[in-house]
Amino acid sequence: MKAITLEQIAEILREHDNYLILMHKSPDGDAVGSAYALCMALRKMGKRADTLCGDEIPPMYGYFTELAPNEGVEPEFIISVDLATTSLLSGRTADYSDRVDLCIDHHGSNTGYAAVGYVDGKVSSCAEIIKYLFDVMKTDIDKAIADAIFTGICTDTGCFKYSSVSPATHRVAAQLMELGADSAYICHLMFDSKSRGKILLEKMVLDTLEFYCGGALAVVCVTLDMMKSSGAKDCDIDGIASIPRQIEGVKLGVTMREKPGGEYRFSVRSCDEIDASSICKSFGGGGHRAAAGCSINKDKETAKAEMLDVCIRAVEGAV
Amino acid sequence: MKAITLEQIAEILREHDNYLILMHKSPDGDAVGSAYALCMALRKMGKRADTLCGDEIPPMYGYFTELAPNEGVEPEFIISVDLATTSLLSGRTADYSDRVDLCIDHHGSNTGYAAVGYVDGKVSSCAEIIKYLFDVMKTDIDKAIADAIFTGICTDTGCFKYSSVSPATHRVAAQLMELGADSAYICHLMFDSKSRGKILLEKMVLDTLEFYCGGALAVVCVTLDMMKSSGAKDCDIDGIASIPRQIEGVKLGVTMREKPGGEYRFSVRSCDEIDASSICKSFGGGGHRAAAGCSINKDKETAKAEMLDVCIRAVEGAV
User: Fold this and answer.
1) pLDDT attached to residue A235
2) CA-CA distance, B78 to B176, in Å (whole number)?
3) Which of A52, A150, A216, B110 is the most buried (most CB within 10 A)?
4) What is the CATH number of the domain that holds B280?
5) Does B224 touch chain A (CB under 8 A)?
6) Cα(B99)–Cα(B113) distance, rounded to whole angstroms?
7) Distance from C-alpha of B142 to C-alpha of B230, rounded to nearest angstrom
8) ipTM value of the model?
9) Partner A contacted by B207 (CB < 8 A)
10) Phi, psi (5° rounding) for residue B22?
C-alpha cells in the first residue's frame, strides 16, 4: 500500500465520482461516524457516494445515518475507513476485499491491503483523521457531519478518557461543537444510556466475577442463557468487557462470552505493563496493547483454563 | 455580595498575604482541584496560602494534594471555591461562615454569602473559572496545577459529557494537557477505577431497582447494611446516584440513602423536561436543574412515599 498525504487524498476525491465507503463488521461509533461523515462530505461536493456495512448499522446512530442510498450504480472508487484488515469485512463488503482503492485508518496494525492509504496510529480515532482531511478539503461541515465526526471521536476515546486523546483531539471537539455537534446529547446517548437489558446483564455478569493472582487478574463470563434471560442485545455487550479491568488492583481483565455453536469469545483488557494483544495472539486473535480479543473453540472449562494459564503467566511476568 | 471581575480578583490576590481557601463538605474533584490549584498558584506568587475542608480529602486526589501546610498563622483573607452556600461548610470551615472575603463559584444558585464574588453559572466547573483567572494573573501553570484544574473540570462534567461543557472547556483541556496534565491517568483514576467494595455495592443497589410511571421514574436504595457488607466507602457512592437516570426511558432517577441516625438522603437526577432542584426544594434541599439533593428525616417507607409522590407528579406533569 502506497502511503499518501491528506492533500493527495483531497486531490483523488476531486477526481473521481461514485464512491463506496466500507465499514468493518460489528460497526462501532468510529466506523459509522467516519463513513457517514465522508459520504455526506462527498455528496456536498456533488459526488455520488454510499456507505456499506456487512452488519446492520445500530439504530442508536440514527441521528446522522439517515441518508438516502444511491440505487443501482456500480461504485467506481472503493474507500475503507477505520478498517485494520480486510478480514473484518463481512457480507456484501467482503466482495470488495481485493479492490480497496483508498484506506483511511488509525490502527498502527493496519495490514496495508489498499492501493493507497493514510494510516496514523497516533490519532485518537479515524473520525479525527477525517476531520483533518476535511480541513484540507475545506469541506463545509454542517451539523450532521459534525455530529458524525464527534460520535467517532468520543466513542473511540471512551469519551476523551484514553491515552490516545491529544490536545488536538480536544481542539477538534471544540470546533465540532461550534459547527453544531450536539456534544451533550451524543455523550448521553453513547455513554449514559443503558437499556434495562444491559443493566440486568451487568448484574448477572458481576455474579460471575472471579479474582486470581491476588486480585491482579479478574474474569467474568457472559453465557447465552444470561443474554436470553436479561433481554440484552449484542450491542449491549460493548461496555461489559471493560468491567473487570476497572476494578481497583486489577492489571488484566478477561471477559469470556459463550457464542452460538459453543465457541468462547475472549475480550482481554490490560494495564500498561501487560500486552493484551500478545496474549490473544497465542490463540490466533489480536488487537491493541491495552485491548485485544480471540476465540477458543472448546468447552467452557477447557477454554477458560487455557486462557487463565496464559493470563496468569502474563500477570506474574509483569510483577 | 458585590460582583467583581477576574481582573479585580487578580488585583486583590496581589494585595494580600496569608490566604485560606475553603472547600465544601464531602469535597468532590472540582472543590479539591479548584482549592489546591489556587493555593499552589498563590504560593508561587510568594504568598502564604492554605486549604481547609471539614471532611478528609479523599486519597484518590493524592497526585496533586500533597502540600505542606503553613502552621500556626491566623489567615488574613478567606476565599471559598465551588461553594454555593455556607450551609455546606462543616467542621473547622464552619467557623469562617460569616467572614468569607471572596467567593469564586459556578453555581447559579450561589447565595451571595461573601463580601465580593465571581459567580458564573454557565461555566462547566469552578476549576474552569480558576483557569481563566490564572490566564488573567499570568500564573505559571506547572504540572501539579494543571492536574488539579483538569481534575476539577473532568469530574464536574462527567468527563466532558454534560451540557455544561462548552467549546471553551475543551480548549482549556487541550491547554492543560500541553502544560503537563496527565489526562489519561486522571480520567482512568476518576472514571475507570472502582474499588471491589463499589462493584459489590453497585450489584446490591441494582437489586433494589424499582420503576414507576411506566418506566419514566426509577428508584434505588442504599442502606447502611449494604455499605457495611460491601465494604464500600462514602466516596464510592458518587457514581451510584447516576445509575437510575442512565436507564433507557427513565426521565427521573432517585437514589435514596440511609444515613446514620435514621435520616434519608435523596439524590435526584433528571432529564431536560424535569427540574430536579424544584423537587428537592420542596423538602428543603436544592441543587442544579439536572442534579439535586435533599434529606427527609422520617422512617424509610414514609420518606420514600413522600418523595415518590412529588416525583410522580413531576413526571406526569412533564409528559
Assistant:
1) 75
2) 27
3) A150
4) 3.10.310.30
5) no
6) 9
7) 39
8) 0.89
9) yes
10) -95, 140
